[in-house]
Amino acid sequence: MTRFTTALLTFYCLLFLCLLSQSTDLDDVSLQISIELTNIAMTKFKHKQLHKMMKPLSPKQEYLTAQIVPGDNPQTLIDGSLRSDQSQADQSFDSQNGSQITNPKIEFKQSSESNNSDTQSDSSNNSDEISPYFPASIFPASNAPNYEKITIHRPEGERIFLVYIPQITQTQRSNEERPLHITFHGLNDNCQHFLTNSGFLQLSEQENHFLVAPCGSQGDFGTGWNAGVCCMGSVQVDDVAFVNEIINYMKHKYKINTSKIFASGFSNGAMLSERLACESSHLFAAVASVAGITAENPGGEDGLLRCDEIFEKNFASASVLAIHGTMDNIVPWDGNFLLGFPSVPLDIQKWAQRNKCDLEKTEQTLNRGGYSNTVWKSCNGIDVELVKAEGLGHIWPRSKEFDTATYVLEFFKRHRPLREKDEDLQGPPVTVVA
User: Among 53-67, 305-319, 346-360, 394-408, whose mean pLDDT is lowest?
Assistant: First the structure.
């Protein structure tokens, strides 16, 4: 079904619905049929739009996409190849009884140990072709750093996340508490590829903080996150709870500075970051959204109001940074009504309102190479900022004028923690992993 045909069908269904609503002679059955036809047309159009977010993978990219086959054990991207994990029964998880994780499976992996050396070498030489959204990798596959692969049991099945520990922390075994940065890949990307190509690894080493890259679940539109209206479809996954379990695990195993926990993401992963700012802002000092928006159900302006309602129940706020291209045709700058995406300016304005910013007091600290920003400062210690990338599409910007990873980390560093310890929080504490 072409875009024109779908739009035309939607128009006629809506027109038919309007005519029915004005008629007093038609029964409820006819009205219900009209409503169903309209829903079908709009659902088909929405699915077609979401599938645009699943860029066709070239042969160079194909081996980098992790898949989870329904009914089978999750398959996880390890060392540039798909490998099914069959021996993960040494874990147990019960979300109904305190969210306990017992004996999580830990694997130490390094990308140079690939089972497919030809493919691995080829990807290293052509790293600029790996993703339509990322420039060349700063860590070629032949020289990728070590990370831990953690697998836990969740109600939706086994979930995986990758943990990178800075070398200085490994060698010095410092007792100093370190910041924790959790970053989420986009739709149909995967955690290892995002970990090694986003630019955060190098900066994590420099700043000496823990970096976690969770792996998405298989939904109706590919591997991604449940951020609300995007992008799991009929698949029921609680990714907010999953992230909370990651924090539990990291707090239990490492010395984490709980006043400096950050979240970032791209596209669908950015939407999850904003959802965390809505629903779990007491856990995060700041979040960064690149090419994303607030996608709380039911979407659009109603979704923003839903975020308002949830946010009011929180007892702490998170700073919010949004970076977005004005020519983004996947998550459009001006929004997409049918997909339930609000406009970017409205989304960031709502964050300023939620954080009690003075909407009339803004400043600009960036204006170069097509990048400009708007910063709300008078927000009771919270920062809200929008970076506008003029003329850019659905991409993770990295150039001489602007490097996304660097800018995000600088934003996190500027954030002034409103609390020092978990004990300072007046809400329910995060459950420590047993």
Answer: 53-67
Q: Return the domain boundaries, the chain.
A: 3-51, 60-424
Contact 120, 79 (CB under 8 A): yes
What CA dihedral angle connects 305, 310, 316 and 320, to 10 degrees? -40
How far does Cα 68 stand from its chain's mean position?
Answer: 18
Exposure string of 113-149, with b = 16+ CB inside 10 Å and e = fewer, is ebeeeebbebbbeebeebbebbbebbbbbeebbebbb
Minimal CA–CA distance to 80: which of 177, 168, 190, 167? 190
* Pairwise CA distance, residues 1 & 10, whole Å: 12
Q: Which residues pair with 78 in a beta bridge?
A: 81
Angle at 250 between CA 247 and CA 251, to 5 degrees: 85
Q: What is the mean pLDDT of the chain?
A: 74
Specify the 3-state DSSP secondary structure of 331: coil
Among 285, 179, 185, 283, smallest CA distance to 227 is for 185
Q: What is the pLDDT of residues 249-268, one digit of tens each?
A: 999 999 999 999 999 999 99
> Which of the listed CATH numbers 3.40.50.1820, 3.40.50.1970, 3.40.50.300, 3.20.20.100 matches domain 60-424?
3.40.50.1820
* pTM for the full predicted model: 0.73
Q: How far apart are CA 427 and CA 432, in angstroms?
A: 15
User: Could you read off the pLDDT of 394-412 as tens digits, one per residue?
Assistant: 999 999 999 999 999 999 9
Joined together, the tokens standing for residue 386 give: 């929008």
Q: How far apart are CA 376 and CA 387, in angstroms?
A: 12
Whose CA is closest to 325, among 372, 271, 265, 393?
393
What are φ and ψ of residue 18, in 5° steps? -65, -40
Say if CB 348 and CB 384 are below 8 A apart: yes
For the CA atoms of 202, 214, 60, 389, the dihedral, rounded to the nearest 10 degrees, stands at: -60
